Amino acid sequence: MAVFTEVTPDEAQRLLSELHLGQLSELRGIEGGIENTNYFATTSAGPWVMTLFERLSFEQLPFYLYLMKHLARHGIPVPDPAANDQGEILHRVCGKPAAVVSRLRGKSQLAPDVSHCAAVGTMLARMHLAGRDFNRHQPNLRGLPWWNETVPVVLPFLDPSQAALIRSELAFQNHIAASSGYAALPRGPVHADLFRDNVMFDGAELTGFFDFYFAGVDTWLFDIAVCLNDWCIDLATGAHAADRARAFLDAYRGVRPLSAAERHLLPALLRAGALRFWVSRLWDYHLPREASMLKPHDPTHFERVLRQRVAHPVTA
Question: Is the pTM of the predicted complex or chain greater than 0.90?
Answer without folding.
Answer: yes
